[in-house]
């Protein structure tokens, strides 16, 4: 699968290491193969250089001229609504959930565990109810067939075919003497 996130001017990235960890920045210029010039006007990150292994590239890209000033980067940042798009992304939601989990107390973790147990009991009971109904209907295995267990399918209330009376045997011709 080809790459879709390139190190380029205007690429929004998440800082993964250092004092600005967890903040969004934009790449302003590529210094060399391992370093870039960044600016984070929306997240109060001052303009400076950072190593590429300290960045996680996002799917967001904003348009501004090559080596633009902080003022131009700020205008492009607000015009493209990077902060709103980031908050709606799955990545940001996962990071927020992770932070929330780490901030939980022992009692909060206990309550969460008990809530999950209750949810799982309800889910399991519903699953077994549906499975039993499917077994009775004969649709448990994905197609209309009779289950191999002793559970008999319930008769359907549809019209039953009428019984055809048996024909009387034809009389045999008398044997000649």
Kindly describe this structure.
The protein has 177 residues and is α+β, with helices and mostly antiparallel strands. 35% of the residues lie in helices and 18% in strands. The chain contains four helices and five strands. Strands 4-3-2-1-5 form a five-stranded antiparallel β-sheet. A hairpin with a 4-residue loop joins β3 (35-40) and β4. The longest helix is centred in the C-terminal third of the chain and has 32 residues, at 106-137. 12% of the residues are buried. The mean pLDDT is 87.
Strand percentage lies at: 15-25%
Extended strand count: 5
Distance separating the two termini: 95 Å
User: Which oligomeric state applies?
Assistant: single chain
- How many DSSP H or I helices? 4
Task: Assign an overall shape.
Answer: elongated
Helix-strand pattern: EEEEEHHHH
Percentage of residues assigned to helices: 25-40%
Rg value: 35 Å
| pLDDT averaged residue by residue | 87
Query: Major sheet: size, sense and barrel closure?
Result: 5 strands, antiparallel
Low-pLDDT windows of residues:
none
Structural class: alpha+beta
Strand order of the largest sheet: 4-3-2-1-5
Quick take:
By secondary structure, the protein is of the alpha+beta class. Helix content is 35%, strand content 18%. It contains four helices and five strands, in the order E-E-E-E-E-H-H-H-H.
